[in-house]
Amino acid sequence: MRVRRLDDDGDMTFGAGRSNYLTDAEAVAQNVLTRLRLIRGEWYIDTTEGTPYRTEVLGRGTESSAVLALQRRILETPGVRSIVSMTATHDAESRKAVFTITIDTDFGETTINA
């Protein structure tokens, strides 16, 4: 598997030849991160595609569905075999959740910080 590398802002990188691409486990990890960042309904071509943040992840009463929705989204990514571990920390001051996800891919294990 080979995908174009994204920079820290999520933009594609150009001008550096082969180093503009990710291969193997790194490529799968970037695909997982990209899929998690896509909010359901955001892509005009297929509004059913995306992570269901508004309905299953965020808000009150989503405690039971949030983790399952995120796991399902990760496991449906091509190249992902299983989730080895998934931890979340919440920073109350900034109101952000930080996930550390270790996945087993067709190319070996890799860790994603989202």
Find the count of extended strands (DSSP E, 2+ residues): 5
Class by SSE composition: alpha+beta
Number of helices: 3
Determine the mean pLDDT: 92
What is the H-and-E element order? Answer: EEHHHEEE
Strand count, sense and closure of the main sheet? Answer: 3 strands, antiparallel
Low-confidence stretches: none
Shape: globular
Strand content is 25-35%
Supply Rg.
Answer: 15 Å
Fold and architecture overview:
The chain is of the alpha+beta class and 114 residues long. It is built from 3 helices and 5 strands. The strands form 2 sheets. It has a 3-stranded antiparallel β-sheet with strand order 3-4-5, with helices on one face. A hairpin with a 2-residue loop joins strand 4 and strand 5 (108-113). The model has no long low-confidence stretch (mean pLDDT 92).
